[in-house]
Design goal:
By secondary structure, the protein is mainly β. It has helices at 3-19, 79-83, 224-228, 366-370, 372-377, and strands at 34-36, 74-76, 92-96, 106-111, 116-120, 130-134, 139-142, 154-160, 163-168, 177-181, 188-192, 203-211, 214-221, 239-244, 249-254, 262-267, 273-278, 289-291, 297-299, 306-312, 318-326, 335-337, 343-347, 350-354, 360-365, 384-388, 391-396, 399-404. It folds into two domains: 3-72, no CATH class; 94-404, Neuraminidase (6 Propeller), CATH 2.120.10. Helix content is 9%, strand content 37%. The strands form seven sheets. The chain has a six-stranded mixed β-sheet with strand order 1-2-25-24-23-22. A four-stranded antiparallel β-sheet has the order 3-28-27-26, with no helix packed on it. The longest helix is centred in the first third of the chain and has 17 residues, at 3-19. Keywords: Signal. Residues 1-26 form the signal peptide. This is SMP-30/Gluconolactonase/LRE-like region domain-containing protein.
Length: 414
């Protein structure tokens, strides 16, 4: 390239950069609870100093207006995010546990035909339990146990053909398993509890996919039972599994070479995409780290706080893994996909919304919900939620919030 055209090109690039808004608008014109940040700020800041122990919104930077967004409820990087929420949508506290118990930590299953959200508590003294939120009156009750089969140490779950499917981590004597619960009678049965006589490590989350009149249950499995519930050492490797109830077949379909510690799992509306999150151990940004006796961290580079997408074929088998996103901090735990294919994840900084291609559109800010001390301590992170038609239900440990959406973004998915 000659010198003259090169000067013109550089001048044009500088002009475009100078004219591109990189500053924050403290208040959205249609919703005072939305703070707009240019998407450029996600990869370009002026004189910045970030810290992995703090939210992105707490990054020290000279970029004009950036710090005004720190305590906003909704953070937008794209107008598509703004369009998801009703005018002046805000956090609405609908329930606070009177004893302060962490009833709202995992799961987030919307039963669309019963106007309920099922959720699981955090593990206390190696025990967790299921609770049911009635959205018609915002009351919460424990899951009844009419036939003596208790859902032991529940984690994630899904809703399919009028039945609730829950991943249970078991304990030392009760094997980890997948439960099926009738939401009308609450009759419960175990549908999966072993692989050729071997115990699972601890089913984490489940989802159903349906193509061509057939349906398959996918679930993730990792060593949760041993870690949180005094369970036995896992006897099978971490994996993502596919159960075909018509063929009576259980198959491992994603192994540790693809996803080391599989966590959240969901499919899109037409079951052509499968999304699975990975979990580093211990929970640090980037590669996994191990502390030696001298306190030195050895980075093993074996896992990351990532979200992966897979193609699902007509027979319900995943292929073509693609890195879809990486959590800025903590892990991507709770996972839901709306009818338009947007992927919602519960992460330490908040509930993050990504486009079908993976672009971060915005997030519900955990700092505004839980406060700086809780969010940055990581002791009770905001990690799960439910998409309930035109309502976002935020599970915030011992509190439950809702945010009104502009329209029904899910019709019958969990």
């Amino acid at each position: 390239m000659s010198a003259a055209p090169r000067k013109v090109l550089l001048w044009t690039m500088a002009l475009v950069a100078a004219s591109t808004p990189r500053f924050a608008t403290a208040l959205d014109s249609n919703n005072s609870n939305i703070c707009n940040l240019s998407s450029i700020s996600t990869y370009q800041l002026d004189s910045f100093n970030g810290n992995v122990s703090q939210s992105f919104l707490q990054t020290k930077t000279s970029t004009r207006g950036f710090t005004q967004c720190e305590n906003a409820t909704l953070i937008s990087y794209d107008q598509e995010f703004n369009s998801l929420f009703a005018p002046n949508a805000s956090l609405n506290l609908i329930y606070a546990d009177p004893s302060g118990d962490p009833i709202a930590d995992e799961m987030g299953i919307w039963l669309w035909d019963r106007n309920q959200v099922w959720m699981a508590s955090a593990s206390e003294n190696n025990v967790s339990h299921v609770s049911i939120l009635d959205l018609s009156n915002n009351t919460v009750k424990p899951l009844p146990v009419p036939n003596g089969i208790e859902v032991l140490n529940p984690n994630g779950g899904g809703y399919h053909n009028g039945k609730v499917y829950i991943a249970g981590d078991g304990n030392y004597t009760v094997p980890p398993c997948i439960y099926e619960v009738d939401p009308v009678t609450y009759q419960t049965e175990v549908v999966i509890n072993s692989y050729f006589g071997l115990r699972f490590g601890g089913p984490n989350d489940v989802t159903w996919a349906s193509r061509g009149g057939k349906s398959w249950l996918f679930f993730t499995d990792d060593p949760l039972s041993e870690v949180y519930n005094n369970g036995q050492i896992p006897q099978v490797p971490d994996a993502t599994w596919r159960w075909d109830p018509l063929e009576n077949t259980l198959l491992p379909v994603i192994d540790r070479t693809d996803i080391l510690v599989p966590n959240g799992i969901r499919v899109n509306k037409n079951s052509t995409k499968l999304y699975v999150t990975d979990t580093p151990d211990p929970l640090v940004y980037g590669a996994a780290a191990v502390q030696t006796a001298s306190g030195q961290s050895i980075y093993a580079a074996t896992s990351s706080s990532a979200i992966y997408s897979f193609d699902l074929d007509e027979s319900g088998f995943p292929s073509s893994r693609r890195l879809f996103g990486i959590a800025e901090r903590g892990i991507a735990d709770g996972l839901h996909v709306d009818d338009a294919g947007r992927v919602w994840t519960g992460e330490q900084d908040g509930i993050v919304v990504r486009s079908p291609s993976g672009k971060v559109l915005g997030m519900v800010n955990a700092l505004a919900i839980e406060g700086e001390d809780v969010v940055n301590s990581g002791t009770s992170p905001l990690q799960n939620f439910a998409l309930a038609g035109d309502l976002l239900v935020v599970l915030a440990f011992n509190k439950i919030y809702t945010v009104q959406l502009s329209s029904q973004i899910v019709s019958d998915m969990t």
